[in-house]
Amino acid sequence: MMMKGVFIILSSVCYLFLLILPANSSLIPENFIHCLSDHQFPSNTSILSVVYATTNTSYQSILDSSVQNLRFLSSATPRPLAIITALEYSHVQTAVTCSKSNGLQIRIRSGGHDFEGLSYRSQVPFVILDLRNLKSVTIDIEDESAWVESGVTIGELCYAIAEKSPVHGFPAGSYPGVGIGGHFSGGGIGYLARKYGLAADNVIDALIVDVNGRILDKESMGGDLFWAIRGGGGGSFGVVLAWRIKLVKVPEVVTAFKLSRTSEQGAVDLLHKWQYVQPKLNEKITIMAALNKLGAGFSSLFIGRVEELLEMMEEEFPELQLRKEDCTEMNWIESVLFLSGYPGGHTIEILKNRAYNPFRAHLKLKTNLIHQPIPYEAFQGMRNWSTGVDFSSIYFQPYGGIMERISESETPFPHRKVQYEILYLMGWMEDGKDGKSSSEKYIHQLRELYELMTPYVPNNPRSAYVNSRDLDLGTNGVFGTTTYSKAKNDWGSRYFKNNFRKLAIIKGKVDPTNFFYHEQSIPPLFDTHDEL
Predict the structure, then answer these.
(1) Helix, coil or strand: residue 295
(2) What is the pTM for the complete model shown?
(3) What's the pLDDT at 436?
């Protein structure tokens, strides 16, 4: 109870500070600058050389460069007092220490792909700690492991692995531009998950800067914190500097395909059938599906040769009518590019180009996790909705395979018995003349679809994936005012089920003053009274 009292007092002091300093203020507290300048660094690289205030000519370009959701490039989006592009770990330690001592909130940005922009915006005075320069990948093929810094993208990681070995890979997501810092923190699912699990399932060590500015590894941080950072969502427990991952074995040749089917070709029938077929398939194959106004699409990675794939599909899913000419044999790194969605004509070198983003747009996403097949009318309803809406896509991400054999409590990611995930995505390129009308229109349309699906999806709770954040589910209040119970009921149990309580207890131990805070960060839980 004493710790809880200290937390309340510190929260009140910080809140008073926030009332004094408006969120859009361009004034950096002088004491904050003095704190930064007082620290010495082994490399003699002053942290001030990588601090970009609003008056710096590079400030806006650095801020905008990693804003992947164009909805948050609006002038109405609160801007940070400063951006710190750390070059070394000691810069991160100093940024944490000085932000904490000066009552500034810190937002931690890896790739900037958080759908709600929580890594680079806040309603209270804040600084961005940008990890873009922490981009080292060290591969140990003999040990079949790698150390990967949090500023590395999925594409860069995959490319680095392939440079060292043609028979090793890693089960990360399918979009190469995503930063691994946030990706690993929330779980990380992709085409290899049914065979090897989530990205977070394959993390075997990490380096984190805690609330006291200390660098801790797996041993020194303890089992609870190491458990929490592998799927508990980013920005709640500290700043993860680097991750040690175990590499997985892949054959020299894999097979991939992409198919599209129109309504006249039975798109809805195939999608309805897909949900029965995919869970029974060998874990060596993943077939993702998509639906939009043009029809249905199917994209697949099979860890093996085309002849084996065709035989399997003829037996399990003949309705798809997969032909040999639809399939391409390639090596694993080529499949990463092929399945990325990047336009054709690129070589695998594009995976290293973090500045290349063909999908940058105004975005809003919502998700559902499906445990049992849903009725045909649900697919027909999605199809009918999509025909009248521009810029929408509905994606179906299969789970199953090894995922079903991992305990729900193994990591914070609890959705192990899920058959597939539905992602409802709106992406549009321009706002209306008033800067708001288009966003409001498209977001409203997406919410209508979400409501349309209510009768067909599990609703106790209506689960979601934390790496597809949705602030519609609920948000933490002003610093320190959200109760554990409210967060659990709004969004905590949706993302984490029964693991949410353990996450909150760990948060209370490692960050009792709730310094690492955002609109859906884990709240600290100190005793059972906080649950009321």
Answers:
(1) strand
(2) 0.93
(3) 57
